[in-house]
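Lecture notes, part 5. Sequence design as translation. It can be helpful to think of inverse folding as translation between two languages: the language of shapes and the language of residues. The source text, in C-alpha cells, appears below.
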C-alpha cells in the first residue's frame, strides 16, 4: 500500500445531497471543513452503530494526522470537532476517544446523532 508522505495543495468545494445526508466539504490546502447541513440518523443507523462510528472516526483522524491534515466538523454554525494533526483533546478525551480527535461541542454532537438536525 502506497502512502502519502507530504502535503499537497487541494482546493475546492464538494456538496453531498441525499435524502439521508447533506454536507458541504471545503478543501483549503491541508485543512478540510465539513459542514453538516442535515442528517437523518434513523436511516444512517442501519449502516453504522455508535461503536462503528467511533472506530471509523478514530481511524480517519489517525490517518489525517499522519498525512498532516486537519478536519473541522461544523453543524448549525457550531464547531463540533477537530480531527487530525492539530486536534488538541483534553486528557479525558485522549483517554476515552483518541489523541487525534478533539470534541469541541459534545452536546451538539449528541443532538446531531440524535436526529434533531433541520
Amino acid at each position: 500500500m502506497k502512502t502519502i508522505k507530504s502535503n499537497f495543495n487541494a482546493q475546492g468545494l464538494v456538496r453531498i445531497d441525499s435524502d439521508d445526508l447533506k454536507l458541504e466539504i471545503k478543501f483549503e490546502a491541508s485543512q478540510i471543513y465539513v459542514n453538516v447541513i442535515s442528517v437523518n440518523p434513523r436511516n444512517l443507523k442501519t449502516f453504522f452503530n455508535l461503536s462503528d462510528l467511533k472506530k471509523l472516526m478514530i481511524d480517519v483522524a489517525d490517518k489525517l494526522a499522519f498525512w498532516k491534515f486537519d478536519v473541522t466538523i461544523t453543524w448549525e454554525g457550531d464547531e463540533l470537532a477537530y480531527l487530525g494533526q492539530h486536534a488538541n483533546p483534553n486528557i479525558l478525551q485522549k483517554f476515552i476517544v483518541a489523541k487525534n480527535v478533539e470534541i469541541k461541542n459534545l452536546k451538539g454532537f449528541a443532538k446531531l446523532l440524535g436526529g434533531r438536525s433541520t
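The translated text above is only one of many valid answers, since several sequences can fold into similar shapes. The CA atoms of residues 41 and 86 lie 28 Å apart.
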